[in-house]
Amino acid sequence: MLLTGALYLWFPFVALGWSELPFPGFVLDPNLVVNDSGEAYWAGRQMQPMLSYPERLMAVDGVPIHTNEAFRAWLGKTAVNEKHHFTFAQPQNSRIAPDPALPSERTVEITLVKIDRESMWRQFWLLYLTGIGVLTVGSWTFLVRPRSRPAQLFAAFAAAAAVTVGGLFDLITTQQFIRLWLVAVSLTGTLNMMLALQFPHPIALLGWRPRLRWLALLPGVLVAAWGQLWLHHPTDPWAYVSTWRAAYLLNAVVIIGSLLIMAYRGFRSPAPIVRQQGRIILLGAVLGFGPVLIFLMVAAVAISPPDWFDPTFFIPPFVIYPLSIGYTIVRFGLL
Question: What's the whole-model pTM score?
Fold first, then answer.
């Protein structure tokens, strides 16, 4: 929780520092691969066809660009209203197939601008404030019941979820915290599953073999390690996408599993208090996780957010889910 809190103190400084750079109208994943996030009026999204994944920035004004750091350094030497030529190419000899709707290579002219406040609100501040909400609920629950195992697991889940949400803007801008984000996004779902197995009442198997709960974390650890190894693959700049898809798919699967466990406890548990607790959490999960779950399932296949996924409407309700868990832990005084 302390590490996550420190990150949240630093996130705004990094984001605001990046926003001072001239903006080319598109954002990039690792290895200069285009990310589809953005507003409809950004230059990259105004092109025909729209600049999009899996295109990769190869050169600026005919000069090759090899890393995201080099591109940001180049932007730091430019000025707003300058026009430059950007060359993009699709995958070749990669694990990721090219998009037949996009040209294999193209060079486009873009006028650099200053990113506007609305874009910063939707792309950074909205996610940042949502993450603060998740982190606040997790910290409050842990402080109220620090000796409770569910509270401890919930605090770990909240910390990972907060980094996952709050780090999304850094993911497509400075990428200072991308390796921490990879760990967080890989572990968020499995930590949630660990909590579901333990809360509101441990499943029978954990009563006999408590250490088995750590097996739920193993898939997340493996995906996190894979993501670290392939983040900057030496021969395939698009290789990281496979690990991200695995993380999204893992989260979708374990979230569905957690929902099924809570549904069973909410309606089939023999203990009335467990049924009540399960229903509260299930309602919070449906309200908070519904749109995010759909996004995860789509992203596991397409990596890019669907057109209907507007963060203004779908991201903030995510806070409802941890709030329902935190309320239940504190209200019913588990363990």
Answer: 0.89
23-113: CATH topology? Pdz3 Domain (2.30.42)
Q: What is the spatial order of strands in the sheet that 63-64 belongs to?
A: 63-64, 56-60, 83-89, 105-111
CA atoms within 13 A on the CB side of 104: 2
| pLDDT number for residue 311 | 64
Distances (CA, A) of 130 to 14, 142, 312: 18, 19, 11
CB 108 within 8 A of CB 47: yes
* CATH class held by domain 118-332: mainly alpha
d(CA 238, CA 241): 6
Q: Where do the structural domains in the chain lie, given as residue ranges?
A: 23-113, 118-332
Structure tokens, 254:
């374990």
**Is pLDDT at 310 greater than 70 in this prediction?**
no
Higher pLDDT, 320 or 174: 174
What lies within 8 Å, CB to CB, of 140 at 6+ separation is 326, 330
Pair of tokens at residue 331: 């209200």
Please name every residue paired with 110 in a beta bridge, in sequence order, or none if there are none: 84
Separation of alpha carbons 242 and 229, rounded Å: 12
Average pLDDT over residues 4-19: 96
The burial class, CB within 10 Å (0-12 / 13-18 / 19+), for 299 is buried
